[in-house]
Amino acid sequence: MNAPVQFDVDTRRSVPTPADLTLTVRDERFNRGTTPRRWWAGEPFGTAWHNALSATFPRGEAFFIEAVKAHRDGADPKLAAEIRAFVKQEINHTREHVAFNRLAEEHGYDIKAIDQRVAEMLALTKDRPVIVNLAATMALEHYTAMMAYEFLANPKHFKDADEEVRKMWEWHSIEEIEHKGVAYDTYLHATRDWSPWRRYKLRSLMMLIVSFNFFRNRWNDTLELLAQDGITGRKAKWGLFKYLTVSPGVVRRIFPAWLSYFKPGFHPWDHDDRALINKFEGDFEAALMPAE
Predict the structure, then answer these.
(1) What is the pLDDT of residues 235-254, one digit of tens each?
(2) Do the record's keywords include Hydrolase (predicted)?
(3) How many helices (H) and strands (E) does the chain have?
């Protein structure tokens, strides 16, 4: 059974998002059993990095949902449908990362401090303009899309990982690629009366701020989890640095895509990578659900 969101091509906006794009809600369940403590090939650095990422997702994705929904009024029918599908996908992602985080805690990792830091940072966003929250969401969605592409395109990232965890990250990555333009198109809708320079200035500034905070916080979060595994000091920092920049080197490999965000006229769908979705789609056909 297939359950994509169907769009009327005649309602397309003048943006690079493919006219025939469909967003599909895949209602999957993962990690309800057991996983190894060091699920990433028995190695601590990849395990800690992804555990730290996952610890931020439940609150982070709730923030993304609210930031996008705040600007849905007046959206054309296609964008409105994309937003509804985006929300459903993100709700499912939250549920599955809650389950994954629970397994990490059962293995003895204390991730509550990470969750608390995310809560404190998000509390600071309550009183700022909602368009700024959308610009932050847009930048973070670009991060998830860049990493999703890398995880699917380069099998080295999860080649020796626990199969159940690998499938969760593949499923999440498929949907991040699929909805990578939703926050951006919502931003274009919300700022339709702005000058191109004003729109560019805010999105570029927010990407710089988000990048600084993202890497500072995920670096510290990962070192904290490594310390819980008995790995500290220079060994922890050098091992994490090698993991991120050498092999498999996700940060090094996403840098060109990160830089492209600052190109005037940039759009997430300048690079159409739906072929990666098709490559993995068959693995999740049994879990498709209506998106409307």
Answers:
(1) 999 999 999 999 999 999 99
(2) yes
(3) 10, 2
